[in-house]
Specification:
heterodimer, A: 444 residues, mainly alpha, 2 domains, B: 404 residues, Cytochrome-c3 Hydrogenase, chain B, three-stranded antiparallel sheet, 15 helices, globular
Chain lengths: 444, 404
């Protein structure tokens, strides 16, 4: 037996181990699913909100990190372009995998705990900061039907939960046993208290207009063309909201908490490894969340800015083709690959037949994916809504990134006086004017 | 009488056991009255150590700040991290060797570190420098002045939190540095001036780069610096910050742009003319405000004047040798010589004593950065932590020159 085994190649040995194991695992899984799936499905069907919450929470946590990756890459590239640099261009095509490598690096680094820190709080602080940000994403409506929860105090919930991250920053600053961290945390607390007020007051005008705090309803009330968006009714509110949101997201020019020329790295000075990574990702997810909220509140959320001027209705009925559908599915890839690859094969003698076929295959796939996406965009409301929402969100992300490349940092006392002397009175003025206008229009 | 002993770092009475440690202050033993006053903390005050590895102390400067909240009450700069004993090295090297040792004093404007010692040696040796060499010295010196000011502008913006201006100004600095590398062979420590002239004539590489750059430098500089000059946040932070009045500036021996920003039109190029500066037309920009913004804008004005000087140098450049005829071994007569030049940071001067050998008996280097660093203690108390670095950057000290 041993002699036979020793004569086998590595591949054969692996085959002989893996296949029986797969068979056993498959059998166990089949039986398990058959036994467990009906009760689980029955439970979820009986508690649909719970199922929805579980799905949304999973989706948000899965989506959070790639979003942060995209924004980090975008920041690296955009600021590089502003700085007359090339930016990352080594890892992946045009350096697109740079932020992924950043993430892996952060995971692989030593997670150092200095002497003298308050270990439980030091460990918990990044978790608190990071957890509060995806929680706020739960209430943001990304598309019709694509949102975690829609309840009537969604906006209030958003501000309440995003305020939680300050608790995490304070924990980090206090537990770090470092004066720079402490100063950064105290600045974070002062800044959060100062800017929560104008941030919350700036959206009261919208609440008055909409009559609800449900973000879904706010978006639905902005349906129509881009002239129906809230930005035209609340321009002052938007300006205040955007400035205060910059401070809330700790972005330049209002990034007092981690002013690296003054406080080294602020509250994150003593952190390394993945604990620092949590702060890092939380910052970028926060930028995304704040941008998404700007789009939802002031720029119509998932609503398209204009109706497509040529109404297209696609009434595809694949079943109507009968047997032809089978021929289409069987022949279309082959014919499409050959037709799309043929020009390359004909035009250049340097392109070999195989290479031409590969090019044709890739082009055919792109064509099919594009056609499918276009079909989905036209016929499914949630796809087009998601596209518009993500586009609008990334416009704001771009503005945040550009501000970081352009502006120096304001001083901490200027920051405070700006919030209390200008933003807060302006937000109150906005509320009064909106309320008076609404009451006059309602009584007319 | 007992002799005071230095405290040992291992002395257990000096360390605070960590289990009792809250946010604690490691109090060093006070050796002087000033230290006793500084380290005596009143209620609500704490010490904050900045540097030598802080991101924005220029070079390796350590500053201990006494802060009350965010406000700086007092501060104690700790120097010496870059000390090389260059004056002692100079006493043991011959006159040619000294030049290369003096280069790293002010590594961002090293031609000026060479210029004043070379001039004083020429006075000692009674050498007449060829006119072409003098013009080349002025030309390369003014280029180096622009490069140094570009570095200042970028760093100043960076210390106020703007990350883009430094790369924009480095684009200019890079072109100048490449130019100087074409003529001197080095990008940072040029080692180009010689006793009696310069090392090597202008070459084609240098001239083509210079002509290319000069044709667009003015517009390019103005366009690039619009990012800062028209930036509300930048101007609001810099205006009225660290005001240095005229009397204090004179009393504290400030020179260069820091003095001229306080309203004193003193420039060694005009007050005590040297080289071929009397033949050149340029203005001495002066500002009255004496704040950080004035110091920044004054350096911008100086860059414009330097461009004028370079233009004139190129037009008036005479033909001839670039090196005087010298004996191989330099043995000046016993005596003393002093010379001063106007560098990008102020007055660089050198006082050389010769005892008749081929090495100086004593060489004293005067560097403006050291005196400007003293101003930090006057300007900073009462400001916020955020402004400490802004004020220090606006005085533009280079630690290589401070520590010598």
């Amino acid at each position: 037996m041993t002699a036979y085994w020793n004569r086998l190649s590595v591949g054969s040995r692996a085959f002989l181990i893996v296949v029986p194991a797969l068979l056993v695992v498959g059998a166990i899984l089949t039986v398990g699913i058959a036994l467990l799936l009906p009760p689980v499905l029955g439970f979820l069907g009986a508690n649909l909100p719970l199922a929805r919450f579980a799905a949304a929470a999973t989706a948000i946590i899965v989506v959070t990190i790639p979003t942060a990756f995209v924004i980090i890459y975008m920041e690296l590239k955009v600021i590089a372009a502003m700085n007359l640099r090339v930016g990352p261009d080594r890892v992946g095509p045009y350096g697109t995998l740079m932020s992924v490598v950043h993430g892996l690096k952060v995971l692989a680094k030593e997670d150092f705990t200095p002497r003298g820190v308050d270990v439980p709080i030091f460990t918990l602080a990044p978790v608190v900061v990071f957890a509060s940000i995806p929680l706020t994403m739960l209430v943001i409506p990304f598309a019709p039907g694509i949102f975690g929860q829609d309840f009537n105090i969604a906006l209030l919930y958003f501000f309440a939960i995003s305020g939680l991250s300050v608790v995490g920053l304070m924990m980090a600053g206090w537990a770090s046993f470092n004066k720079y961290s402490l100063l950064g945390a105290l600045r974070a607390a002062a800044q959060a208290i100062s800017y929560e007020l104008p941030l919350t007051l700036s959206v009261v005008g919208i609440i008055i207009l909409a009559g609800t705090m449900s973000l879904n309803s706010i978006v639905q009330l902005q349906a129509g063309s881009f002239l129906d968006w809230n930005i035209w009714k609340q321009p002052l509110g938007f300006v205040i909201f955007f400035i205060a949101a910059t401070a809330e997201a700790n972005r330049t020019p209002l990034d007092m908490t981690e002013a690296d020329q003054e406080l080294v790295a602020g509250f994150a000075t003593e952190y390394s490894g993945m604990r620092f990574g949590f702060f890092f990702f939380a910052e970028y997810v926060n930028v995304f969340v704040v941008s998404a909220l700007s789009a939802v509140l002031f720029f119509g959320g998932w609503n398209a800015p204009f109706d497509w001027p040529f109404p297209v209705t696609l009434n595809l009925d694949p079943g109507g083709m009968g047997l032809g559908l089978i021929f289409l599915i069987a022949l279309a890839p082959v014919v499409g690959t050959i037709i799309l690859g043929l020009p390359f094969w004909l035009l250049s003698s340097r392109v070999s037949t195989l290479r031409a076929l590969v090019i044709g295959f890739v082009l055919f796939n792109l064509l099919i994916v594009g056609a499918f996406m276009g079909w989905a965009f036209i016929s499914a409301a949630w796809v087009s809504g998601l596209v518009w929402m993500v586009l609008k969100t990334f416009v704001f992300v771009f503005i945040f990134v550009q501000m970081r490349g352009t502006l120096p940092r304001v001083r901490v006392d200027q920051l405070m006086s700006f919030a209390w002397k200008w933003l807060l009175p302006a937000a109150l003025l906005n509320i009064f004017v909106t309320a008076i206008a609404v009451s006059i229009l309602a009584n007319r | 009488m007992t002799t005071p002993t230095r405290p040992s770092l291992d002395d257990p009475s000096l360390t605070i056991p960590l289990e009792h440690a809250g946010i604690f202050e490691p109090i060093p033993l006070a050796r002087t009255e000033r230290q006793r006053e500084f380290y005596d903390l009143r209620d609500g005050e704490m010490l904050l150590n900045m540097g030598p590895q802080h991101p924005s102390t220029h070079g390796v400067l350590r500053v201990v700040l006494k802060i009350s909240g965010e406000q700086v009450v007092d501060l104690d700069p700790v120097l010496g991290y870059l000390h090389r004993g260059v004056e002692k090295i100079a006493e043991n090297s011959d006159f040619h060797q000294i030049i290369s040792h003096l280069d790293p004093l002010e590594y961002v404007a090293s031609l000026f570190c060479e210029w004043s010692p070379v001039m004083s040696f020429e006075k000692l040796l009674d050498i007449q420098v060829p006119r072409r060499a003098e013009y080349i010295r002025v030309l390369t010196g003014e280029l180096n002045r622009i490069a140094s000011h570009m570095l200042f502008i970028g760093w100043y913006a960076l210390d106020l939190g703007g990350i883009t201006p430094i790369l924009w100004s480095f684009a200019e600095r890079d072109e100048i540095v490449e130019m100087l590398a074409a003529i001197t062979g080095a990008k940072l420590l040029f080692n180009y001036f010689r006793i009696g002239g310069v090392n090597g004539d202008l070459n084609h590489d240098f001239m083509s780069r210079l002509g290319d750059w000069m044709s667009r430098a003015g517009a390019q500089l103005e366009a690039g610096m619009g990012l800062l000059n028209e930036n509300e946040i930048f101007v609001r932070r810099a205006r009225g910050l660290g005001i240095l009045d005229r009397e204090t500036a004179l009393r504290m021996c400030a020179t260069g742009p820091n003095l001229r920003a306080s309203g004193v039109p003193f420039d060694i190029r005009r007050a005590h003319p040297y080289s071929v500066y009397p033949e050149l037309e340029f203005e001495i920009p002066t500002r009255r405000e004496g704040d950080s913004l004035a110091r920044y804008l004054l350096r911008m004005d100086e860059v414009r004047q330097s461009l004028r000087i370079i233009d004139q140098c190129l037009h008036q450049m005479p033909d001839g040798p670039v090196m005087a005829r010298l004996p191989r071994l330099l043995r000046p007569r016993p005596g003393r010589a002093y010379s001063a030049v106007e560098g990008p940071r102020g007055q660089y001067s050198c006082y050389a004593m010769s005892d008749g050998t081929d090495q100086p008996f004593r060489l004293r280097i005067h560097d403006p950065s050291f005196l400007h660093l003293q101003l930090v203690g006057l300007l900073m108390p009462g400001n916020l932590i955020a402004d400490t670095m802004a004020i220090m950057a606006s005085l533009d000290p280079v630690m290589g020159g401070v520590d010598k």
